[in-house]
Every structure is written in C-alpha cells, then in structure tokens.
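As promised in the previous annual report, we have extended the structural survey to additional targets. Below is the entry for thioredoxin-dependent peroxiredoxin.
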Amino acid sequence: MAALKEGDLAPSFTAKNQNGEFVSLSDFAGKKVILYFYPKDNTPGCTTEACDFRDNYQSLTSKGFEVIGVSTDDEKSHKKFEAKFELPFTLIADTEKEIVEKYGVWVEKSMYGKKYMGTDRKTFLIDETGKIITIINKVDTKNASQQLLEAI
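The corresponding structure token record, generated without further manual editing, is:
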C-alpha cells in the first residue's frame, strides 16, 4: 500500500474506544480531527504527548479540533490511561491493528539490535471533508499540539 500523503482521503475506520463504544471516523464529519498514533499507554513519551494534548485541549477544541489517540492497546488499558492522566479525548483500541495498517504506521522497529513490529508515532490532521491536510512524521512529544498548530 502506498504511503498516505497530504491531500489524500483519510482511511475510514470503526473501532472501540476506552469506554467500549464503537467510534468511526465518519462520526466526526464536519469537524477537524487530530488523529494521533502512539506506541503504548503509560510509557514516558506517550504519556508526555497525551498530557500535552490534554493541557492544550481547550485551545484545540476552541479552534474546532477533535482529538483522537490510537494505539494497539486494549480498551481496559486505555481506560486506565485516561483515568490516571484525566484525558478528555477519545482513545481508540486498535487491537486488530487494522487502523495502524491503513495509516501506514505499523512498521518494523529496532531496539538494542532486536527487530520487532510496532506503531510509529505520527499525527494526521484531517479536515472537515475527511481529507488529510497535514502529517507530522517527527512528533515532538512535549510540544505535539503546538507543533501541529504551527504546521497548519
């Protein structure tokens, strides 16, 4: 599958959130969506990024953005992550790895010389019509929301 690029239609998806409710990208039609992919709940970089979105949530929503985080962790893990850090946005449980595959963020990684498959940290900004308008490939976890706003 070819890599997604700005101007492409964002791949549709339906999956469960941290509350066990089905959520589809189409639920957010007419809104700008920050769809961010992260490797794992409760890890240092992922927590920093989620808390940055939490701390800037009001300013993002006031500009018409909805924030959605996606990882391959399950609903239970997402629920604990949400509660522990008081996250005010949707976390999608992509346990079947369908969404990460569609968005091209399920990649081979390497740590300490060992290769494994994992989620590449990447953020997509999707406009009201479902088009990808910005892709952040090198996410600054401490300033993820500011980095996104500067890119648009």
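The domain at 30-151 is CATH 3.40.30.10 (Glutaredoxin). The mean pLDDT is 94. These points will be discussed at the next consortium meeting with the crystallography subgroup.
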